[in-house]
Amino acid sequence: MDITVFSSEEFDTKAWVNEIMKNPEHQNDSNYTMSLVTKLQLYVQQLNTTLEETSQQVLSSLPKIMRDTSSLQQEAVTLKQKMATVKSEIERIEYDTGKSIDTIEKLDSLMNRLNMAKQGLHESDNWTVLVNDLEEVFDTKNIETISSKIVSMQNSLKLLVNISDYEDRKLQLEGLKNRLEAIASPSVVQAFNTNNLEQSQLYVKIFASIGRMPQLIKYYHKCQKDVLLKKWRDQLELEQDYSTIEWIHNYYSTLLSNWHQQSRWCSQVFPSDVSSAKTLLDVYVDVLTSLDPSLKECCDAALKQVPDKLNFLIEVKESAKHFADSLLKIIEQSQGDGHSARSEEGLSTFDRGLWIRRPPDRT
């Protein structure tokens, strides 16, 4: 007999009895019925015995469970106390460590100040020695040696920034740089005028080392300006029989030729942070507004002689536009379109160099 059906939640007593007794042979068999009842009683007795044994085991295990629970609670309390102790110890260590770090920082700061004071005394002595040496070296007019001494003084001054007479020493250093520049300027001008690549590179290195690159660019600017102004005067003298339009056109050609030569030369001489295009544009703007006689004066004189004044002005305008467009194209090819906006801004100044109002474009 299968007793597992009794554990089913859907067990139906009547259905189970009917299923057992559906065999006709068993319906009138009292012995079979008694046998089933006896088996059921035995199963019930076994189940009761099993339940009793299980209950006894549970009851006997309860004290151990209670003891284990109590032990776990005690261990939890002990662990909590230990964690509190550890936390307190950590806080104490952090406090002591913080005080130690503060002490170490103060000692480190004191040591740094002592080192700076020691270095300051050393550099102060070194400064005095360099000043005395420079006075002797200046007499030799050896530009490289003088610049080397000034660079050493420059480095020494960086370490004397906190001394009381720092500003006085700074002014003294600037005065020495001015003296060096005065000695070097004739040679610088000669190197720029003759396009001496090796000498020019040397002066760029010297002026860059003493922080005087802007002044060196000004020397180059003036040299180029003087050269181009002289070419204008020479051209007017040689081309007296030429028309004003031819003067202007030929001079623009001279400027374009000069650009090709000087842009390559500048890129070889000056460092990468110096824009050759900007440097030359500044020169050309200055030249076009300093011509003697000016383009305006030449055009005014020509307007009094030419019969077709409008056509003359249009030719002047087209010549200037052709020059500006050609120069802008050269710059864009050498530097890329990223510089075109700045280049156009510089080239627009050429119109102001003409000093005349340009007629509208012909359509």
TrEMBL record:
Residues of the signal sequence? none
Q: InterPro entries in the record, alphabetically? A: COG7 (IPR019335)
Lineage, top-rank taxon, reads Eukaryota
The answer, when asked if Protein transport is one of the entry's keywords, is: yes
This protein's membrane topology, according to the annotation, is: Peripheral membrane protein
Q: Which PANTHER family match?
A: CONSERVED OLIGOMERIC GOLGI COMPLEX COMPONENT 7, CONSERVED OLIGOMERIC GOLGI COMPLEX SUBUNIT 7
Where can this protein be found?
Answer: Golgi apparatus membrane
Which family is it part of?
Belongs to the COG7 family.
The UniProt keywords, alphabetically, are: Golgi apparatus, Membrane, Protein transport, Transport
Q: What is a single cellular component term in the Gene Ontology annotation?
A: Golgi membrane
Q: Does the keyword Ligase apply?
A: no
This chain's protein is named Conserved oligomeric Golgi complex subunit 7
Q: Which GO terms describe its biological process?
A: Golgi organization; intracellular protein transport; retrograde vesicle-mediated transport, Golgi to endoplasmic reticulum
